[in-house]
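Training component of the fellowship. As part of building independent skills, the fellow (R.M.) carried out the full modelling exercise for a liganded target. The chosen ligand was adenosine monophosphate. The inputs are recorded below so that the supervisory panel can assess the work.
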Amino acid sequence: MSTEFADLNLSESVISAINDAGYRDPTDVQRGAIPRILDGLDLLGIAQTGTGKTASYLLPLISKLSNNRSRALMPRGLILCPTRELALQISEAFKIYSKNTKLTDLTLIGGNSYKDQEKAIAKSPDVIIATPGRLLDHCSKGKLLLSQTKCLVIDEGDRMLDMGFIPDIKKILNLLPAHRQIMLFSATMPSELELIARQILVNPFKIEVTPQGSTSHDIDQKIHLIENVPRKDTFLKKGSHLHSIIENEMSLKNSITFCNRKKDVELLARLLNSKGIDNLALHGDLTQTVRNKVLSSFLNGNTKHLIASDVASRGLDIPEVSHVFNFDLPVNLEDYVHRIGRTGRAGKTGKAITICFEREEPLIKKIENLIKQKIDKRHFLLNNSPKNQTTDKKNPQKESPANTQTYEETHKSSADKPWFQTNSHIPDFLLNPSPYFKSK
Ligand code: AMP
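Fellow's submitted model of the complex:
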């Protein structure tokens, strides 16, 4: 019989909250991390979202802090994460797990008013959940002291590295007391991060729940390779292809489409809207209020399709996404793993389709090397008809009849979209500025 929550030494109040949340058994990362965090060890957790990693640090943190709750004037726990969305999500989880305690949390993220945040800091929250830049702003203004903050969680370490947050994190470490406990979580462990982990963690307990760069086996991955077109035509060509997929994928319930550029997120969102596919755009140039609204509309099912930059590729726990589409190959190939990890979560199956041009095949090979897995490929000609082949030569029987037809051929409904099936320039109406952009 495997370990149960009751065996992990968590406080009664936490056990009762996780019972209410409907969790029956701890996940692997929770089994490994919770006892060590309760013992006060530093921890290096290599775990993707979807593994239960947030609870693996929140549950012991709440247990520890609620057991000896002194009326502290300064925060005793700090959780650093790279994006505002992830911070809000961690805060929600904190509230669920701490509901039977008197602990309070405060989220400090960019995009919200400094004044309001200062007032909230003055109320002495027990735990702060923050993005590094905004936290440092408050510290440097003298509004926030971290000299009693003995527990630090750094979530999504690899993303922090990619986003250039490591210098900020080092500054924050200098503000913490000398005796502190640090828990570093990351989906992948690039060598630069490993070096930092060695510098900041003291004899850490290491737990790895997914091999580095691995992808879930519950994700049906496909590459759609389109015959090369001139670069000026790539957007519309891929847009046309994506539109066909969305219209015709049988099992599609909802989707996230990733683009590399914010501009393309906006353009694609408008392109699909113009074709009757309701969707919302999510990227870092939108105001925080709009980002929150977009995310909750997607989470509550009002919006079925999200077009996003990599702001949504990591950390966010969006349950039950049936499809992930890569409109572009990610610039950082490791982001492929994060992007497609939005589907096939918690035992559900999902599908990830990457749309690219034949000239990008060398990059596909690199992704395959990274994930140590061949991805099933279909070639499409310029008129959207398929080259009748699969590159999974070892497994030719995998080629299903559907592979020999285009989406348009199989489903006539999408064949009457003349303007964006042609290789024309992007029409003016798609280029109008969005009212939702942050004023600069
Ligand atoms: P995370 O990996 O932290 O993003 O968590 C992924 C999802 O798993 C969240 O929706 C959690 O609510 C859920 N979860 C975390 N731990 C458990 C558990 N032990 N049993 C069931 N669901 C869990």
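The panel noted the following from the submitted structure. Residues 279 and 305 are 5 Å apart (CA to CA). The pocket of adenosine monophosphate is lined by residues 23, 26-27, 30, 49-55, 317, 346 (CB under 6 Å).
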